Amino acid sequence: MGAxxxxxxxxxxHSPVHRAPAHLKVLALLGxxxxxxxxxxxxxAAFAVYLAALIVVxxxxxxxxxxxxxxxxxxxxxxxxxxxxxxxxxGPQTEVLGVSVSQxxxxxxxxxxxxxxxGVLASLTLAATxxxxxxxxxxxxxRLPQQLVQIMAFMVRYLDVVTDEMRRMKVxxxxxxxxxxxxxxxxxxxxxxxxxxxRSYERGERVHLAMxxxxxxxxxxx
Length: 222
Prior knowledge:
Strand order of the largest sheet: 1-2
Shape: globular
Largest sheet: 2 strands, antiparallel
Distance between the termini: 20 Å
Number of strands: 2
Order of helices and strands: HHHHHEEHHHH
Radius of gyration: 22 Å
Structural class: mainly alpha
């Protein structure tokens, strides 16, 4: 599947959610997130309603729940931070499973975990039911600055190219017997990241020159 025609987050389907206009789904996601963020952190019943609404949307879209749950790994850093909050925050103490933790930190951690999970699930649902190109067209209809849309389009188009380059560099390192097992190997990985950045930048320059030679004026043809 090419980067210009699909994405690993997208789940092919023909449900009403898939057929809905992309710009309306973006507006719905934005409105949903504003409501979630604005909800007081102790309104747990409201969060349950939001989760139920998400479950209904996922059910209508016919996207397998496991498909979304596997991709919630992006939330791991927020989960770790939410778990640490009760132990590093100050204020009144309370006991949880025999461990003394900060009450304010515990409430803030739960709120962060709940709101973050709702946001990640809603975003993954949008990505799973919307083709990248349809999403870009929807952003154009919402009058997002054209240059920003073009940057996002190139990012989607060439993300797989950069990923393949990174995979080839990894294979080349391993073929020479390299294996990152301890912090002493981090300088090698840092140099590899720098080389990847330079290669990507040079590739972008060549692509840009090739586009200009073909009449590119700052707006991609439909």
